[in-house]
Amino acid sequence: TLVAKETAEGEEMRARAASIALERRVEALRAELRTLMAEHEQSRVVVVMAGVEVERMQAELEACDGNRKRQHIAAEDAMNDCRRGRRAAEASLSAAVEREQVRLQALELEREQRRQHEAAVDAERIRLAREASEQERARVLREM
């Protein structure tokens, strides 16, 4: 019975040691589980933050695309304004050239009229001079 008592005590100690080892193992597994859960939570936070960053970058990209489109439209508008200004300047220049041509024609007509008037005045002077000369000759002939 002493042997049985010692055997029972030995088994009880082994059972306690096994129980303590199991409790330590359970506690270690719980600690590992808490660590894994904390890491999982950190990973989830990182994924959420990455998602937020992706959304922010997408919004930035859309804003840049919108700005590029607005700039393209503004550049087209400026180019169209330039074309309209050029057409207006060409029309204005063309009108100015036409006015200058009309003015030159009027000056040429005036010059021609003046030349004709001067020719008529010269012809009249010549006629009057001849007439005066003929009258002078007739007077001289009468006196003789």
Q: Can you tell me about this structure?
A:
The chain has 144 residues and is mainly alpha-helical. Helix content is 99%, strand content 0%. The protein has one helix spanning 2-143. The N and C termini lie far apart (208 Å). The relative contact order is 0.02. The model has no long low-confidence stretch (mean pLDDT 94).
Give the SSE layout.
Blueprint: H1 2-143
Helix content: over 70%
Q: What's the β-strand tally?
A: 0
* Mean pLDDT over the full residue set: 94
The low-confidence parts are none
Q: Tell the overall outline.
A: rod-shaped
Largest sheet: none
Element string (H = helix, E = strand): H
Return Rg in Å: 61 Å
Termini separation comes to 208 Å
Tally of separate helices: 1
Which range does the strand content fall in?
A: under 5%
Based on secondary structure, the structural category is mainly alpha
